[in-house]
Amino acid sequence: MPSTWDRFSQRMAELRDLAGAIGILTWDQETFMPKRGVAARSEQLGTLQAIAHERLTAPELGELLEKLAANKKLSGPQHAMVRSVRFDRQRAVKIPGKLVRELAERQSHAVEAWKEAREKKAFGIFSPHLDKLLAIRREMADAYGVPKGGERYDALLDGYEEGMRVKRLAPLFERLKGWLVPLVQALADAPPPRDDFLKRRYDPDKQWLFSLEILDAMGFDLDRGRQDRSAHPFTMGVDPDDVRLTIRIFEELPLSAIFSTIHEAGHGLYEQGLPREHRRTALCAAPSMGLHESQSRLWENLVGRSMPFWESFLPQMRVHFPEALANVRLRDFYAAVNRVERSPIRVEADEVTYNLHILLRFDLELAMLREELDVTDLPGVWNERMSKDLGVKPKNDGEGVLQDIHWAWGELGYFPTYTIGNLYAASLYDAAKRSIPGLEEHIRQGRLATLLAWLREKVHTPGRLLPAEEVVRSATGKGLDDGDFKAYLEGKYGTLYGVKV
Ligand code: MG
């Protein structure tokens, strides 16, 4: 008879296999699936998700977990596996099947309504759906259970950023806003750098070739992953040996492909660097969405928008686009990729204004969950906050409250992980610079491997062995904080814009 541990590992492996299959079908849906395949695909995904849910909530797994949790002889990694699966399982069993089905059904209607509302720029089409989703998510938060000393929002946040609490985030975000708003004002009022050369024609095939060169330099292994095109760039990690990236290419917006490549490759390198010896276990995963995002943002912004990076890559880019980049100086190119603008759209925001978009969403979803803000008042409050924080007023709901899909999916508590990622990224990069002598010189020579090796050791290899903040703390000596991010932005943009901050 197999031991308790063997029976548990078998079940854990099956759960990972199911998640992998769901991932591949989802990736295929966004990349190669013919349009009319959507009905069959929804059924396949629905079936697999139901099986995965059944397996995770099966009473036998619960019994195995209780037995193993009481076993003092487990190794550190074994203990972490039991802890992780137990965490996921306890969340899953708390939600009655009826509520899961109701959410799934509401989501698909809400997404359809959201698409129509966004197209017609009419929030009224979407608001009744959001109202219902909110009611379901409140019910789910109560079912998960409010953590001690916490509130409903925490119960949802826990699903993306385990252990993080409003009590920690709210004051940190307030402080962040306190120095970001004046910084944006100072920069957006300064004369903007020229970027006319970024609006020229850049051959899409050559953009694709250049993106592959960037992937290669970053150390993304194309024998253990691939890159394709999709409407919205994303990364799907199925296994350290099978990681799928997607990017998008616009002929007259060359930065879109470049930065989606660097961003998604940052996610992809993390996935390829997860502990292979723990394949098909709960440890071969990131401990939080924020830590995952820290890897994409570190590469995209701290590396990809730095002068050393472009010292190496602009000459390479010029080989592909000699005409578009004729007479463009390194300095001008660097300034153009770091242009700070008051834009109403989050996904187009630069790294200075970006977090203001997130802080606004955090405050509003928190108020909605607390039942302090009525859905019908959302557009007004949104627009007011945009003017106050960012100095820009959305022209309509389409470029305002309706711009993101997250709420239509019923995802509440997800947005803060973007800012957590940005803050972790700044601290990790600062620590990398301190630990790797001559790091910027390496980057200037296009040698990105030393940085990757450091990230592998400090961030990727632990997988889900430790909580996200512990991973960051052991790499940097500190937990979640805005100090390094502040020093980074003020140093970089003060110099670039020649303003005193
Ligand atoms: Mg990302």
Describe the structure.
The chain is mainly alpha-helical. It contains 20 helices and three strands. The protein has a three-stranded mixed sheet, sandwiched between helices. β2 and β3 form a beta hairpin. The longest helix has 28 residues. The model has no long low-confidence stretch (mean pLDDT 96). Magnesium ion binds next to α10 and α11.
Shape: globular
Tell me the strand order in the biggest sheet: 1-3-2
Which percent bin holds the helix content? 55-70%
Alpha-beta classification:
mainly alpha
Give the tally of β-strands.
3
> Topology as H/E string?
HHHHHHHHHEEEHHHHHHHHHHH
Compute the average pLDDT: 96
The biggest sheet, with number of strands, parallel, antiparallel or mixed sense and barrel status, is:
3 strands, mixed
User: How would you describe the oligomerization state of the chains in this entry?
Assistant: single chain
Cα end-to-end separation: 68 Å
Portion in strands? under 5%
What's the Cα radius of gyration?
A: 23 Å
